[in-house]
Write a structure and sequence with these properties.
It is a single chain. By secondary structure, this protein is of the alpha+beta class. It has a single domain (4-126), classed as 2-Layer Sandwich (YaeB-like fold), CATH 3.30.2310.20. 25% of the residues lie in helices and 20% in strands. It has 3 helices and 5 strands. The chain has helices spanning 9-15, 20-36, 58-66; strands spanning 4-7, 48-50, 69-73, 91-96, 103-111. It has a 5-stranded mixed sheet. β4 (91-96) and β5 form a beta hairpin.
Length: 133
């Protein structure tokens, strides 16, 4: 089975200026995704979750769900093993997984929480607005 990915326009612009360790973390995620897709999260070192689960306002949860936003803990600055079944990190890679198909759009990478302690979600300018095939 073929698993495809792309960068959103805004993320593609920003990715080129990322430090090497950030770019490498994104490439590691992409490589695992191309090999396994998203049917078995145990193939990934970091935790993968829908961005509408967990803490957050109802408005944020609705925004995340309507835009098919998911996130992956990329291991920056390092992975932490706080749970038996997965590792977390301060930085997340946000992606859109529309209709749980075989293609994703990588849209942003940012700290898990904003300065006010709320869960970070990428703004609309980062999202891929093209429909999935």
């Amino acid at each position: 089975m073929k698993f495809t990915w792309k960068f959103s326009d805004q993320f593609a612009k920003e990715f080129t200026s990322f430090p090497d360790d950030y770019r490498n973390s994104v490439v590691d995620f992409i490589t695992t995704y191309q090999d396994y897709g998203l049917s078995d999260f145990s193939k990934y070192e970091g935790k993968i979750a829908p961005s509408w689960s967990g803490n957050g306002s109802e408005e944020d949860k609705k925004y995340a769900k309507e835009n098919h936003l998911w996130h992956y803990h990329v291991g920056l600055p390092e992975y932490e093993q706080l749970h038996d079944s997965y590792k977390t990190s301060d930085y997340l890679l946000h992606f859109q997984w529309k209709f749980k198909g075989n293609d994703i759009s990588i849209v942003d990478m940012y700290r898990h929480y904003k300065i006010d302690g709320s869960f970070y979600l990428p703004s609309e300018k980062y999202l891929d607005t093209e429909p999935s095939e």
